[in-house]
Amino acid sequence: MSADPAAAEVAALLELAQAAAAAGAAVLATRNAAALEVSNKGDSGDWVTAFDLAAETAVRDVIAAARPRDVITGEENGTVLPEEPSGYRWSIDPLDGTTNFIRNIVYYGTSVAVADPDGVWLAGVVNAPALGRSYFASRGGGAWLAEKGQLTPLNGPVPGRTGQILATGFSYDPAVRAEQAAGLASLLDGFADVRRLGSAALDLCLVADGTHDAYGERGLNEHDFAAGALIAEEAGCWVRRPRLRSPLAGGPSDDERLSSWTCAGLLELSGKFPL
User: Fold this and answer.
1) 43-98: per-residue pLDDT in tens?
2) Which of 55, 72, 142, 273 gets the most CB atoms within 10 Å of its CB?
3) DSSP string spanning 193-241?
4) What is the pTM of this model?
5) Which of the listed CATH numbers 3.30.200.20, 3.40.190.80, 1.25.40.10, 3.40.50.261 matches domain 165-272?
């Protein structure tokens, strides 16, 4: 009996996503404080470094060499449309957690995800070199953690445990951040504590591996959540992705993005987050 061609294609896409994310993470692993070349992208605290740019180039090169007809959207270099697009599209965040990277805080990594022509996310990888971890998932194939040569299946948080932890994040915009801070008390109702690690991709992965019980944040871009949301979903978590305008259509406005929530966690906690 021949293998399912659709399953084989998804497996091949995951393998390529892993190779691309590893290429980006390898750039980040060479972190050198003297070579950061930090600049600001507009909002106070929204930084970019030479490593963001080099890691994105490394990721794009791996994908383009294997699948030259796929569309690639990246945080730093925008969208590249081939002459005859295949319909598949990659979403890249070469360095999620740039502020952490600048300050040498270990929660950062390269995020790579791919969607089919219908916009369904098929494979996603978050490779965190300073943690020595690579989280990955494929549609229908479960979610996994590769660490120290071992593979561990991910099954999400433990239901009903005491001391539940919420992970979240805050906008760079002072007015939006003040609004988020004002609503934090009500958001925390029922949780024992809160964590703010500074990497949305890794926060979603830490829901998938059961470290966090839930995660919710307003204002993410697609590249922030594309891989991590699939990993949490394939770990059996409840996941809400924001319905943002596609990068192929110019992407969302700031108001659209800032009003939209990305959430993941136990199903029993889904009612904790605003609609």
Assistant:
1) 555 578 889 999 999 999 999 999 999 999 998 888 989 999 999 999 999 999 99
2) 55
3) EEE--S-HHHHHHHHHTTSSSEEEEES--HHHHHHHHHHHHHTT-EEE-
4) 0.94
5) 3.40.190.80
